[in-house]
Task: structure prediction
Amino acid sequence: MTPIAAVNDFVVKFANVNGSGSASANELFARAILRMGVPVSPRNIFPSNIQGLPTWYEVRVSEAGWLGRRGGVDLLVQMNPQTWDADVAELPAGGYLLYDSSRPLPPGRLRDDIVVLGVPLTRICAEHYQDPRQRQLFKNIMYLGVLSVLLGIDREAIVRLVGEQYRGKEKLLEANLGALDLGRAHALAHFPDGIGLQVRAADAVGERIFMEGNAAVALGMVYGGATVCAWYPITPSSSVAEAFQKYCQKFRAGEDGNRHAIIQAEDEIASIGMVVGAGWNGARAFTATSGPGVSLMTEFIGLAYMAEIPATIVNVQRGGPSTGMPTRTQQADLLSCAYASHGDTRHVMLFPEDPTECFAFAADALDLADRLQTPVFLMTDLDIGMNQRLCAPLAWDDARRYDRGKVLSAEQLEDGREFGRYLDADGDGIPWRTWPGTHPTRGAFFTRGTTKDPWARYSERGPDYVYNIERLRRKWRTAAGLVPAPVPAAAAQGARAGVIHYGSTSPAMAEALAALAAAGLHLDALRLRAFPFPQSVLEFIEGHERVFVVEQNADGQMRMLLVNEFGVDPARLVPVLHYDGTPITARFIVDAITAVLGASPVRPQPERVT
Result:
């Protein structure tokens, strides 16, 4: 058996028990490597309960900068006996197993083709701590100390991080550092030469930041001018509203009181109702939810579409249908959001790829909702929303002004112009509107979800209904020129096919394209960032005999949208579908594409240094 050897290119997986306090130590591990200038991509896999079930934390270390989930495990930190067999089975021959050896294992539980690193964590903690809670918590910090020796992680990087976490809490700081050094002392005594996996200082992080997508969305809402958030808690979106509250307390609280309203409603129906009411009244308002919440909100969404009221809906997608997999990731709400409500409806959707775009698109969604007078969906998912991502710094132009769209002022109403709330005066499908109380006698109208004429008067006349539907279609075509444009990859010489992808598939897609190109299989790629699709998407499809559509759902929902909107031959769009709740990997994409094109699979593999 030859142990795996690699420098700055491997995967570490932590198997813990939910509620054991391991999350903090595991994140310290990832951040310490990041502080050494080596990119990391961590992912938290947790159950939908409070305590007791298995939880995993996976960290990909990649100096090359690949941030997608690689698949496979090189080093397993096994702290949960309940999942022992399945977790250990993931290790390849030559992999490493670090476990708590305080109690002897039954015969046959250890494999002879892996490197076994037993550390009596429970026994050491029992010798040094009396409090049961400390024994549990410091066990996690102790294995962090062991890992720092095994992998060559700079102790000072961890010390600085712990100091930042417990700033002003000297006793906690000293206690945690003490547990860290207990682990280091044991490792130095028993594994002084470390293992074949090593972390070496690099300069591959640059100016990038480490942030969760949900926090970036919340900050984007603040910068974008949102003053109202109405929500009902649902995994994995709750931290959007929580972060928005935190940022508002910092940026929107003054001596004259708060300049924002955050309401936890009694359910999702009430929350979207509040958002629609606030939007009608002129406020920038949003809600954060997930698939089951969107299902409940559909009737109000339809009202906002028909009455043409701005509303922004953040959908942090998870596994479905119904309750589905509340703590797993998918991209399976596209159809339910694109056509939410009965009748002929189409809704704008934005697809950010990382926290940087989450921040930018949150502000864009508020602008688009106002400009188009319609609901706008910001479509993220659990993988982007609840995991720390390495991304470009957030940027904001202080000269930027909010796009409130076609809103008539009192002065404009005085100039004698004709005002019809649903009158298309400019040919772009977007009517002018007023805010309540703008003028004492002019500009008033009755908001309704029923059919009406251009002056908002109730009407069931066929021509009036057709006028509104045709106008809404013109507005939809206008929207295609306002939403974020698709991003093409550099044109590949002699490309045999094209690839369309979006959102959280982006990191794995970039790595897959590089691996395919290295094997001589070149493909053009197009990353979609919004619905409706501009004409350039159809041109991309028509420019290739075959186009793969990579997404994380079982139905091929993006592919369905492309077929439905453009009327293209479905046979030209080849689905690449990943839907087990884990983030898609480059290996999966490469295998799927090469299986269709008839080439030999070239699965991305970490470089091994022997």
Q: What stands out?
A: The radius of gyration is 27 Å. The mean pLDDT is 94. The first strand starts at residue 6 and ends at 7. DSSP finds 19 helices and 24 strands in the chain.
